[in-house]
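Morning F.,

Quick status update on the modeling queue. The single chain you submitted on Monday has been processed. Sequence for confirmation:
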Amino acid sequence: MKADTKTLNAPESRSETPSSAGYEPRGDYRGEATVERLPQHTIYKPNSRGSGGVIRFGLNPYKEAMFVDAAPQNGERQFDWEAKLTMKWGLSDLGAVLAVLQGRQSEAKLFHKSEKTGTNSAFELVHRTEEDRPPYLLVLSRQDADKALKKVMVPLTHAEAALLQVVLARAVERLLGW
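Structure tokens below.
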């Protein structure tokens, strides 16, 4: 299966550069600069209150990681990708989230601290049992050096969680080269 390619000068949107939009520079057989479309899975959850969010799981095997981006809703069906939060996951992070999706534990809490920027990023996946609420809740948050907290929450249905489980399990296989 051949990967989609686009020219290096044509990112997906004006606000995203090729590397932040899930593209990786690659050379083709003619020596021309192209970018390869990297696998990603996006879950959009707008709501009528304007407090929804979107979360994108992007696999980058060249960096041996998955990048998780979350953006808050900023309109009826619009999301503020300029204010997105990003977290880089390795295999242990993927394993913790998969354990919840597989029903082995009720929650996963990931915490990453950047000494360089002074920011703290956290991801939480909780399996909820209340009948009137979606069964899963994803929360990605970041606290900047000035202590300002940004948070995006995305509820998941059982169907969305099942699909995410397949996506993340496949990402582990790709990262391991299996």
